[in-house]
Description:
- The chain is of the alpha/beta class and about 575 residues long.
- It has three domains: about 30-135, Beta-Lactamase (2-Layer Sandwich); about 150-310, Alpha-Beta Plaits (2-Layer Sandwich), CATH 3.30.70; about 320-570, EAL domain (TIM Barrel), CATH 3.20.20.450.
- Helices cover about 45% and strands about 25% of the residues.
- The chain is built from 20 helices and 21 strands.
- The strands form four sheets. The chain has an eight-stranded mixed barrel with strand order 13-14-16-17-18-19-20-21, surrounded by four helices. A five-stranded antiparallel β-sheet has the order 2-1-5-4-3, with helices on both faces.
- Strand 11 (about 270-275), helix 9 and strand 12 (about 305) form a beta-alpha-beta unit.
- The longest helix has 30 residues, at about 1-30.
Amino acid sequence: MNDLRYQVDYLTAMNKKLSDSEKMYRMVCDMSSCAYLYYSYKDGQITLLGNWQEFFPMDIRHIQDLERIFEYIEEEDAERLGAVIHSETPSTEKISCECKLRGKKRWLECETVVMPDEEGALASKVIKFRDISRFKQQNDELTYMAYYDMLTGLYNRNYFVGRLTDWLEKAKKEQSVVSVMFIDIDDFRKVNDGMGMIMGDELIQAFGQFLRELCSDYVMVSHFNSDTYCIAIYDPCGTRSVDAIYKTIQERIAKPFVLTGHKEIEITICVGVAEYPESADNAIALINNAEIVLFKAKSIGSNEIQYFDAPIIHDFLHHVQIENMLKGAMSQNQFLLFYQPQYDVASGKLRGVEALIRWRDENGKLISPAEFIPIAEKNGSIVSIGAWVVEEAFRTCAEWRDKYGVRLIMSINISAIQYKSKNFVSNVISLMEKYEITPNEIEFEITESVLIDDFSEVIEKMNLLREYGIRVSLDDFGTGFSSLSYLKGLPIDTLKIDKSFIDTVITDDSTRIITESIVSMVKRLGFETVAEGVETEAQYEYLRDIQCDNIEGFYLGRPMPKDEVEQILTAQI
Ligand code: C2E
Ligand code: MG
Ligand code: MG
């Protein structure tokens, strides 16, 4: 009796435990966002758990009913899903696939596990569905971001380069041409600065959207960054030739873009064009070359198109090479000064010297200042190079004064960029004190062409220097503005007549007339004259006859190292 009671109690307890555990599993399944189908092969019983109704609003009592879920699945996914849910291979490994709910933006992942019993016969099957829409969406966004530019919806740079590489491979096989147009909006910074970055972005977007209309199987457009875009054209011809596309763009930009608040903005663009196979054999080089010729277009002005031209690329690369080499030149003491004598015509005596920089690179090769000074001016390194020139020239000036007791005029070329640097005047003055230089022994040469673009700040500093007693000379006169009328307002002491006049002064009547008027007018304005680049006796005699004050040129002496000037000084004493 006790035994029976014990067994009843035991079975009741077991039953409770089982029902508790079933409740627990059911709760867990219901709380998860997944749907489960449990199928027992032994008795054909089906249990649905979790979110089943949300994915498939239908009941399943019999395993055949499972076929109805295909009504809810996109047709293209049916086969894959069928293979997963119909699997009858017992394995501890689950098999899975992804499928999309029909007509909805919902993605499900389906997993199936088939369990064998101890004898290896099929025992049960669990099919699980999980909503993976969010993951899919994020994945789609990531894919989009990998290919497209968020602002314009155009291809981004990386994807463009990848596709262009494919195009070039195809073009190689088909012996086709691929053109690349690199586009840059002119003065975009002014838009950003003047109207704000939000408007700037809107403009980039609006222009990008217009460029998108040009896309086809043969034309692809990419937004590179900020205001630059790249167009690639496969097999350019007819309406998809570079010229035709350029014309279409020009027609569009002739009209303003209308931005938020009815703000209208007109743009112009510069374009660089390079072509495969003529200008490069890979995508990166092709794009680079198009960009380099774009720089050239921009240097000419706004609204320019520049086609690939090998010398442009060569010059650019040379420029970059010089720029890189310049970085170490100063610390490695690669600069030196040469001095070219200037003679006073009337007395035949040395008036002074012009300090001319020389650069001996690490291989001992001399690089002309005409080549590297413009580059140093562009990247700003002229400020430190120029400061070195000034100090070196002052040191030499002091040395010659102490050694030979001579007072010569030391002419030093100064770039406009140097004038614009903040401490230029104060640095010059403190150096002058350091070397005890008398100000009127120093003459700063400024080339005429800079005064045209950028007057006021330079003039202001020239005035300051002159107040201090330093002489100022206008270099290369005749190469720039060439107007005598503007001379009267300039704070200068000396005017250097450019070599281009001297070259033809003997042979060309009109040059002679101009030179004579320059010399006489300049004299009347109270400036000294120096003729530059005098190479022959005939030129020298002619200039002496028209009473040009001073002569500088190969005829009387080339630029020379310091010790050679010292030989002249020794002979003169
Ligand atoms: P620049 O100041 O007009 O100097 C005259 C240039 O003409 C020098 O060239 C000189 O060697 C050359 N020259 C002088 N006489 C004759 C001649 O009779 N025939 C010929 N064919 N050439 C003659 P360089 O030394 O190559 O300098 C070129 C330019 O580089 C200079 O023109 C000047 O603008 C710039 N430069 C040179 N040194 C400096 C410097 O220290 N600082 C700055 N900012 N510019 C410099
Ligand atoms: Mg000069
Ligand atoms: Mg000159």
